[in-house]
TrEMBL record:
Family, similarity comment: Belongs to the carbohydrate kinase PfkB family.
Annotated Pfam families: PfkB
Its EC number(s): 2.7.1.-
Domain of life: Archaea
Protein name: Carbohydrate kinase
A GO MF label: fructokinase activity
Domain Carbohydrate kinase PfkB stretches: 1-326
GO biological process, one term: fructose metabolic process
Keywords, sorted A to Z: ATP-binding, Kinase, Nucleotide-binding, Transferase
UniProt xrefs under InterPro entries: Carboh/pur_kinase_PfkB_CS, PfkB_Carbo_kinase, PfkB_dom, Ribo/fructo_kinase, Ribokinase-like
Organism from which the protein derives: Halorubrum miltondacostae
UniProt key word Kinase: yes
PANTHER family for the chain: HEXOKINASE FAMILY MEMBER, PSEUDOURIDINE KINASE-RELATED
């Protein structure tokens, strides 16, 4: 498959022990997390590891994350160690009202990407994200919406999008908006940055909650996907939780105009943390494997099925990054269901 360049946050998830509310939970376990980090590791387990630009604090949690990324085969080339403390994301127990993730600690080290340090060489023909000889598609860039809550993260994302366009990369963007990270006086600028990222991307992934929080659309399902296409991408993918996912693409997509839906795979879910990231990794691993097919829409249908299988496997154990499956595990899971 063509190589992928992923950029975004790596942080620590605090995952609760069994219990419906904080009062019923005995403790929390720290796990590596962050949506782009989960996607990067998911891609590494499904195929060649991507290049990954991220920032890790110089505290003990940063060292913990650096070790985990290295263990997963993520190249150290664009993994920055910076002064500061790692942001912590506490996962809510299932019975607690409010956001699923609550963020604690300073944000600068984790989200304050330097727009002047964007590794544009990774997107050129001589860089880490260039398509290897013999692969069929252009390189891909994958970005997420959480860093857009930080002013430097917004500026760095704009630089990455400009570099990706100059290098003829395909861009996938996961809206993944977290309004609780945005100060009241920055709501409009953060929402505008999300709209800009959607407009400059080729493939957009989202849930209806993400899009509503960012102020892009209040619709659901196929109507939501078509609203996103109006901003400029050629493909919009909407995740539907246990109901699977759907995608709508235009004639500009490499796989042609299509509307496809996959109902997902029923499994006994233990923990949904990182399920959307697992889906994104599975989807991207298939889309980046080639841009053509004999029948229109088939690459998209195949990618939805593979993404749903990856997500289904990920929810059968606790934690986001640690529960991501390998390519062989996904292949065996799909073979059993054929």
């Amino acid at each position: 498959m063509a190589d992928v360049f992923v950029a975004g946050e790596t942080l620590v998830d605090f995952v609760p022990d069994p219990g419906e509310t904080p009062g019923e939970v005995d403790g929390y376990a720290h796990r590596p997390g962050g949506a782009p980090a989960n996607v990067a590791v998911g891609l590494a387990r499904l195929g060649p590891p991507p290049a990954f630009w991220t920032r890790l604090g110089d505290d003990a949690f940063g060292a913990f994350l650096a070790e985990r990324l290295a263990d997963e085969g993520i190249p150290e080339t664009y993994v920055e160690r910076v002064a500061g403390k790692t942001t912590l994301a506490v996962v809510s127990p299932p019975g607690e009202d409010g956001p699923r993730f609550s963020f604690y600690g300073p944000r600068e080290a984790t989200f304050g990407f330097d727009p002047n340090a964007v590794p544009t060489e990774a997107l050129r023909d001589d860089g880490a994200a260039a398509s290897p000889a013999g692969t069929s598609g252009p390189p891909w860039v994958h970005l997420g919406g959480v860093v857009l809550t930080h002013p430097r993260g917004r500026a760095a994302t704009r630089e990455i999008l400009a570099a990706a366009a100059a290098a003829d990369c395909l861009v996938s963007f996961d809206v993944n908006y977290r309004p609780d990270l945005v100060p009241d006086d920055a709501t409009e600028s953060a929402s505008a940055a999300v709209r800009e990222a959607v407009a400059e991307s080729d493939v957009v992934l989202c849930s209806d909650e993400d899009v509503a929080a960012a102020g892009l659309s209040t619709n659901e399902g196929e109507e939501l996907a078509r609203d996103l296409l109006g901003f400029g991408p050629h493909t919009a993918v909407v995740t539907l939780g246990s109901d699977g996912a759907l995608a709508v693409s235009t004639d500009d997509a490499p796989w042609g105009a299509a509307t496809v839906r996959h109902e997902g795979y029923p499994v006994e879910a233990v923990d949904a943390t990182g399920a959307g990231d697992a889906f994104a990794a599975g989807l991207l691993s298939r889309l980046a494997g080639g841009s053509g097919a004999d029948r229109e829409g088939e690459p998209l249908r195949d990618a939805l099925a593979f993404g749903n299988a990856t997500a289904a496997l990920s929810v059968r154990s606790v934690g986001g990054m640690g529960s991501l499956p390998s390519r062989d595990e996904v292949a065996a899971f799909l073979a059993e269901r054929e």
